[in-house]
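User: Okay, second chain of the day. Same drill as before: sequence in, structure tokens out.
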Amino acid sequence: MPAIAIIGGQWGDEGKGKVIDFLAQKASIVARFSGGNNAGHTVVNELGKFRMHLIPSGIFHPQVTCIIGNGVVVDPEVLLDELKALEERGVKTERLLISYRAHLIMPYHRLLDGLEEEARGGKAIGTTREGVGPAYTDKVARMGIRVGDLLDKEFFLERLRSVLECKNQILTKVYGVQPLPLQEIYQKYSEYGERLAPFIREVDQIVYEALKRDELIFLEGAQGTLLDVDFGTYPYVTSSSPFVGGVCTGMGLSPLAIKGVIGVFKAYTTRVGGGPMPTELRDADGREIRERGQEYGTTTGRPRRCGWFDGVMARFSARLNRFTSIALTKFDILDTFPSIKICTAYKLDGTLLEHPPTNPALLERCEPVYEELPGWQKPTSEARRFEELPSEAQRYVRRLEELLECPIGLISVGPSREHTIVRQPLY
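Assistant: Same drill. Structure tokens below.
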């Protein structure tokens, strides 16, 4: 079997965790390729409800090897807490592997993340302040410290001393805060290294050998395409590449190894943090979507901005990733609405646009052009076949397929595995 990428098609929070957990029942490897603990995946299964930030969603299946790839930035304290929480609830974690090449989130990254956001004032990006952006900055600036560096304490100390000298200059002279202590950080992270050592491996070779054995591999995305550092609504984006291009650099894979790209979309649109969102609803409909969908951030708890399905942004995402199939989630949240709108175009200064403008200032001024469809006002959570959905719900799905120019193969009508309609094979 091939490698299949699972990519968020919107601004993140699309329900990738549920989709991956469902599909991973037949997988050999589930590998996370980007992001950090600024992302959160929620999985509901027979053991309960789990909120995870770094560990791939395949961890609940005993045959699956879970990999944190080199494209991920790792906060070791968060990872260790996550491992402990899973073990305490009966989930075995010895099948987790961490790439030697993955970069670490250090204390100065978290501190600088918060200070930089405060300095932006009213133009804050809305980061989670978990240190992810500064960690990626250091990676590109060749000032990063990698997970594997913890295995060589002498090298780690030398590396930390050099980087911390620079960071303390910034902290004290630019932001006027106290410098961070070298020995305290060194001792704490050395302990983290000892505890994580059994998990740290050269994982690219493991993935390569699995592909040679024709095993099924799922490549787990974090965040969503519209937050991509290159193709998202810049500068209101994340610091990595969550679209399909990030798979190759984040896991060390050839594009030829990827035989399918599954896009995950909510049946409506949400966004966390700053930045333009043309279909955002600030009325009762928006509040109803938020409360019915429990649209609050897994990582931060912040309320998500909610709106009708943005077909313009979704079509851009589908074309960029060349999705081979789509998983549509949170479908049941729309059950109560007498009518449902889909944004099919934007209007900007009297001009009709079918493609989103790259300039965020222009996107902010875009007015959504809506197509209104009748709602179904019937519960869908018990449906297990597409034909069991109300006719209005089927019409809504087919209209989204037309807009996205891609088949919708899976529809999620609830939070757990059984709340899933497999309409056609996704890979």
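The CA atoms of residues 1 and 238 lie 31 Å apart.

User: Thanks, on to the next one.
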